[in-house]
Write a structure and sequence with these properties.
Strands 1-9-3-6-10 form a five-stranded antiparallel β-sheet, covered by helices on one side. The longest helix has 22 residues, at 169-190. It has twelve helices and ten strands. The radius of gyration is 21 Å and the shape is globular. It is 44% helix and 16% strand. It has two domains: 3-190, Jelly Rolls (Sandwich), CATH 2.60.120.280; 202-308, Orthogonal Bundle (Arc Repressor Mutant, subunit A). A hairpin with a 7-residue loop joins β4 (47-50) and β5 (58-60). It has 310 residues and is of the alpha+beta class.
Amino acid sequence: MDVVGQVVTAVRTGLPFARRRELYGTWGLRFHGDHGAGFHVVLEGSAWIVPPTVSTPVKLGVGDVVFVGHTDGYTVAGHPDTPLQDVRMVDPREQLPVPTPRPGERPDTVLLGGRFALELARPHPLLAQLPRVIHIPARATVGEPLRFVVDLLGAEVQRDEPDNLGGALPALLDLLIIYTLRSWYAREAEHGAQGWARALQDPAVRTALENIQQSPATPWTVAQLAATAGVSRTAFARRFHTLIGEPPLTYLTRWRMTVAAQLLRETNLPVESIAARVGYGSPFAFGKAFKRSMGNAPGAYRRASQHDSR
């Protein structure tokens, strides 16, 4: 798995969910911000989205993908001037306040909409640096994996029962987010963007990120990371810090804590085992580092995560 895929998998909490919605007549939805990211795919018809803090609506067509991260709220409607109904996307079975169809009526718009819960104790910079709303038009994904994932999702949600969240859907939703972020960062790099967009295209920095994320328990040094990337230590350290926003070993600690948090949420492994998996020989040293990074001791973090997942 690449850098983006590893980050998405590590910071997701619980399974993503989505539901196919058939929309008729005059409809407008105001989604309130919460602790996750929202996403929408237009399967049929069209819609308009108004991002937070932006007054200009954006028209969405068939195959368009919208990702809304760390949002303060946004609206999706059949027309920009449509009166809005409040929605909180926290349950896949939530009924939307929209008009019901007349017998035999075809939907004006079919949307795949859902939510992707994220670890927020210490947001990963790959996601924290994203704009509030990412819109990727269908025409920009012709021949790309993202288009194939959108097509597969459309077929899957049409085949499944409305409340069936099993099968291939969670895996396809993960792929939707991964390919959306890959596509957006690649296009940003083409337009000269720096930061993570440039880092993912820089061979030396990308290689170092891959090594850190694939082997967090390795006692990496800056010199070792530079050697695996094939550049001098000084040049590597400067490029990494400039693009990632923090020194290589600071990012190593960040990633170790990210992986540890995932293991605490998703497994019953003892803290000692988790400490070893992320490069700490002492549970005490790991506990101090984890609390400094995440705000809670490992045990308290695990209990809070289990409570939130109920």
